[in-house]
Amino acid sequence: MSLSSLQTKLKAGAMSVVLAVASFSSLAAHPNLVITQSDVVKMRGALDSQGYFSERYHSLKAQVDKEIAFPIVVPVPKDGGGGYTHERHKKNYQLMYRAGIIYQLSQQQKYANYVRDMLLEYATLYPSLDVHPKRKVKSQNPGKLFWQSLNEAMWLVYTIQAYDLVHDALTDQQTNIIEQQLLRPVALFLSQGQPTTFNKVHNHGTWATAGVGMAGYVMNEPEWVEKALYDLDKSGKGGFLKQLDMLFSPQGYYNEGPYYQRFALLPFVTFAQAIAHNEPQRKIAEHRDGVLLKAIDTTIQLSYNGLFFPINDAIKSKGIDTIELVHGVTVAYSLTNDTGYLDIAKQQGQIILSGDGLKVAQALDKGLATPYTFKSVAFGDGSDGKEGALVIMRSQLDGDQALLFKPAAQGLGHGHFDKLTWQFYDKGEEIVSDYGAARFLNVEAKFGGRYLPENNSYAKQTVAHNTVVVDETSHFNGDVEVGNKNAPTLNFFETSKYGTVSSGEISTAYKGVELERTLALVNLKELNSTVALDLFSVVADKAHQLDLPLHYKGQLIDTNFKLKANTKQLSALGDKNGYQHLWLKAGSTPKQGLAKVSWLNDNGRFYTSTSLVNGDESFLFTQIGATDPNFNLRNEHGFIRRVSGTKQHQFISVLEPHGEYNPSKEYTLMAQSRVTNLKHSQQGEMVLVELEIAKKHYLIAINNATLASKKSFKYQHQSYSLNGRLGVYLMNNI
User: Fold this and answer.
1) Which residues are catalytic?
2) What is the CATH number of the domain that holds 692?
3) Which helix (H) or strand (E) is 481 found in, with range?
4) Cis omega (within 30 of 0) for bond into 31
5) Residue 681, burial from CB neighbour count under 10 angstroms (0-12, 13-18, 19+)
6) Could you give the 3-state DSSP secondary structure of residue 605?
7) In terms of residue numbers, what domain contains 599?
8) Can you count the helices (H) and strands (E) in the chain?
9) Which of 207, 247, 290, 538 has the most C-beta neighbours closer than 10 Å?
10) pTM
């Protein structure tokens, strides 16, 4: 860089700081983060009117009144996640935040006094603290109040808002003590004190930059804001904007998956609102073509029946009512006035006491909500959207169904080794399941509430998922760094009146092995039902053992082949890579033809997986729980299709929902599979599947060509035409 260009850059940087200082000084009054002075005026005016907003205010006020009647407790930290001191400090920051809001709306001094007194208690405690005694030294940076700095950053995100809300009720001496002995040390500890985390493009970095950046706005520290936005040296290699650029795809899909997308959403949304209110000239809502708004909508789409799809390190009970998405939906409606978001807000049943929350509440009072539309969509993965995709297929033909297909990127350290896996949902329940994370979140008695050892030894391993395992080893040999460098390719995705179809492939999960999978959620309109078609092709340069697990939720009902069950003694299926955690319950090698496995789900419906086999596939029935002395794993069921000593193989199957079991009224309908024939053939790039079901004869055609132009073809002397990827034809010879 020449001297003149360097001087120009330095002058520009200095000018940006001057402008930032000028913009800060014009906002001397508080609050000035998510809630502004004008918001407060509008919210106070709504308290006397009946409706969602006033109901929420009075409900929250009652909760806060109950809590502040007790003495303030700010304990010396000693417990890990879920322990008493951890939960107490977590409760404290939430309570301060809520009391601050109630102070602004009620104008009653006692609420400001409560926040003030708690902050002063923390200001006395914090300077005396070393790093947390339960810190995880090897894996992540410790906090002081909490066992990991992530929780410390969360504490700051909430606490700085609480301080902002009561700031003008404090004396100069009190603000000086709180800022100098508490807020400033916390902000510096999370930034300069932990530069690796602060500059990291990761959800931990998002929470840290959000907390420090908002502290900069409240405490008139424009340098903190610049560093939060562009990293500590303001190079732009890290920081909040880089996180927006790198962690989300252009469609708003977050690289770590739905569970962490909702978790990271709150700091993204909260800091963005603070930026918009303090420096509107940055146009943060327009950044990357509005990627943050897309991320909010995508988070909703990544759910089924109110719960997020549990891929990667996911806790399966998390859903759209989580507070992070409540904030997100509130902001999304405020920005767009899209009444579909009101439908989600109504389902969430929570109103945020903010200016945006007031808009949502008033719109709900007027009955403006319209049904939110869930779509079949392929969300491109990676910052450029070209690292594979997470595919969602949906159908309303016979119940609310969803098929999740994962030709997606690794997902950083929280990713699982499960390329090309799938899950299926129907009538509100998980049918073909994913284990999610092995963790009892914040249950300190269970390994301190942290991820259990079995998260690595089982949940992340490929055999825990519904995809091909080669030689009982996991994809990328279980190496996260290798996985992050190698994503699948999304060959195509299409949705039409026939259903939805998608194909993906990867040749780097195993050396010398090509994996390609095509999945389709097919509409059979004459039967008013659907089937899920699964075509998984494996081609290798040498012979291997190939396993294809299917993990299901429910009770095994029947197989059309005889099982050899292990009824007196069980042994683990293997000794590593997740196999050591699977009891081998039974086995069989079905004859050539159709191999059927049926189970009954809690939703009262039967499901049959019908596989086309050549007599060379073993079916191994498993139950999770082997080599698990502390009973950390859930005892769920599955079966594995295995072929040995082969260079290539194609696993072909169809999943069929059928029938009903009603124990209350004591009746059972269509408990038997209706599939009577399944054939597979190929004409060039055209894949043809003949399916006979419920005395209907269908031909399903999938066009694998690079470009899906209109195709004409013949099958059994009958002419057909396909314009697109998927065609479904009722054959007229039956």
Assistant:
1) 260, 414
2) 2.70.98.70
3) helix 480-485
4) yes
5) exposed
6) coil
7) 377-730
8) 19, 27
9) 207
10) 0.93
* DSSP result, 60-124: HHHHHHHHHTSPP--PPP---TTSHHHHHHHHHHHHHHHHHHHHHHH--HHHHHHHHHHHHHHHH
User: Exposure of 380 by Cβ count < 10 A (0-12 exposed, 13-18 middle, 19+ buried)?
Assistant: buried
Element (H, E) at 383: none
Token pair 């899950």 is at which residue? 423
Identify each DSSP E strand in 468-573 by its residue range.
469-470, 489-496, 499-510, 513-524, 529-552, 555-559, 564-565
User: For residue 16, is pLDDT > 50?
Assistant: no
Residue 630 has φ and ψ, to the nearest 5°, of: -100, 10
Domains of the chain: total? 2
Q: Residue 543 phi/psi, 5° resolution?
A: -70, 140
Contact (Cβ atoms closer than 8 angstroms) between residue 198 and residue 212 = yes
Residue with tokens 């993965």: 381
Q: From CA 495, how far away is CA 522, in angstroms rounded?
A: 10
Domain of 170: which CATH number? Answer: 1.50.10.100
Band the pLDDT of 165: cuts 50, 70, 90. Answer: very high
The 10s digit of each residue's pLDDT in 293-350 is 999 999 999 999 999 999 999 999 999 999 999 999 999 999 999 999 999 999 999 9
Q: How many residues does the chain have?
A: 734
Paired tokens of 536: 């998984």
| Strand pairing class (606-613; 637-658) | antiparallel
Which residues neighbour 27 within 8 Å (Cβ) at sequence distance 6 or greater?
217, 278
Contact assessment for residue 572 and residue 610, using Cβ atoms and an 8 Å cutoff: no
Domain boundary among 138, 171, 189: 189
> Quick check: 264 and 208 in contact, CB under 8 A?
no
Bridge partners of 632, per DSSP, are none
Place of tokens 């200001």: 123
Other beta carbons less than 10 A from residue 184's beta carbon: 15
**Does 299 fall in a domain?**
no
Listed residue (386, 359, 454, 373) closest to 416, CA to CA:
454
Separation of alpha carbons 655 and 661, rounded Å: 18
Which tokens belong to 642? Answer: 């295995």
